[in-house]
Amino acid sequence: MPNNSTALKSLDVCFTPELLHLHHLSNKAVVVVDILRATSCMVTGLAHGASYLVPVSSIEACRILQKSGYVAAAERNGEKVEGFDMGNSPFEYQKAGLSGLPIALTTTNGTTTIEKSLGAAEVLIGAFLNIASLANYLRKSEHEAVLIACAGWKGDFNLEDTLFAGALALALEADFPAVSDASLAAKYLYKAAEPDMFAFLEQSSHYKRLARLNIREDIRFCLTPNVYTNVPVLRGERLVNHQIIKQTV
Amino acid sequence: MPNNSTALKSLDVCFTPELLHLHHLSNKAVVVVDILRATSCMVTGLAHGASYLVPVSSIEACRILQKSGYVAAAERNGEKVEGFDMGNSPFEYQKAGLSGLPIALTTTNGTTTIEKSLGAAEVLIGAFLNIASLANYLRKSEHEAVLIACAGWKGDFNLEDTLFAGALALALEADFPAVSDASLAAKYLYKAAEPDMFAFLEQSSHYKRLARLNIREDIRFCLTPNVYTNVPVLRGERLVNHQIIKQTV
């Protein structure tokens, strides 16, 4: 049956979790994005065989899960927290040793944004690393509306999450028209940055914060499209890879 | 004496009043902007001889001031509220009959943003209509930091206020460097829109809302730079024109 409902579909962008209360979530697929680096790490960890991920807001909760057998990752202000197995570098999530294990993680902005998105019809995890698969998943889904929830930086707008929002909005343009001012701005900014996102972000505040921490390679990796094909989705408290079920036509 | 403190100066952009709590205001000149159309009206009214303007949040407060002799302007959702002398069109503020009279006004977004800016070192009113004079005032002022507070639309980001923020950030670039991600984004968007702001905004949600109300001429006027040279500033509860005091060198 042809899909005649495209005209009703829509996409919007929320620049920071501080503005999520302005949106109705219950009828929307919310794509949480924290490019540098929480959601890039989540996609990477699940692509490399972690059985599931549990995002938690506090360091305390993360420590409790660590004691009960989780591989535990904690980051604050861009740096790994003392006493945890991992910080917030996607390269740490590529280690073969994680295969089959559950991961608990807490990050400055990303996990809070997931928590604030819990009223959504479905919560998905987006990154440049899986953008084509994610767009494909949304196109084939029955969702009428998509909201891209940028994690930002401590409540404020940031560029890297906005660029991702613009890229995903453009990828989904034919299926989910995006007409809000935030989505128009995100699309413009992505078009301006696309020829060299790394150079574009070198001016940004978060790049400067992270560059001081010597993680240019992390940034380059997090800006690479389609390294992975998995689509993490929240099921209860756990992020797992969406299982693609082949449908008969 | 040459000004050696430029390196310490800074400018930032706040996309909506919902994010103002993320900023320290007490050491900043806050420029409130609601291009379509509250701050454009304020600049126009004071340029045309209104003695002062009192912005109020509620329609009730506006009505009380009307009864005590103010010319009263009230707008909600883009339309004039029944029973008031004016709505939110800058052309209404050009009437000769306003000369020497005080105006009370309440609007959907602009007056709320002024109220949330009250902790600032100084609250100024910005619009394309007075952008060069405003930039000049800030350059010559002793303010170390400028925050451009966009009124947005019902708490959310909007394009027209962001374009103004980008234009003012560019005009002040040599004096107040702007490095936050929000100010970078605003500058990019203004550069993209500058050749034809009217065409750029035709895609935006607020344009569409207002175009339905048949006020294309209002929009064209509000996007015109430097029609006026006055700089409205909040003194107590009143917006008045800044009095330029010529300094001896």
What report would you give on this structure?
Two copies of one chain form a homodimer. Chain A is α/β, with parallel strands linked by helices. Chain A has a single domain, classed as Alpha-Beta Complex (putative 2-phosphosulfolactate phosphatase). Helix content of chain A is 33%, strand content 19%. Chain A has nine helices and ten strands. In chain A, the strands form three sheets. A four-stranded parallel sheet of chain A has the order 1-8-2-7, with helices on both faces. The first copy, chain A, has a four-stranded mixed sheet with strand order 3-6-4-5. In chain A, strands 9-10 form a two-stranded antiparallel ribbon. In chain A, helix 5 crosses helix 6 (181-193). The longest helix of chain A is centred in the middle third of the chain and has 13 residues, at 159-171. The radius of gyration of chain A is 17 Å and the shape is globular. Chain A starts with 9 loop residues before the first strand and ends in an 8-residue tail after the last strand. At the A-B interface, helix 6 of A face helix 6 of B.
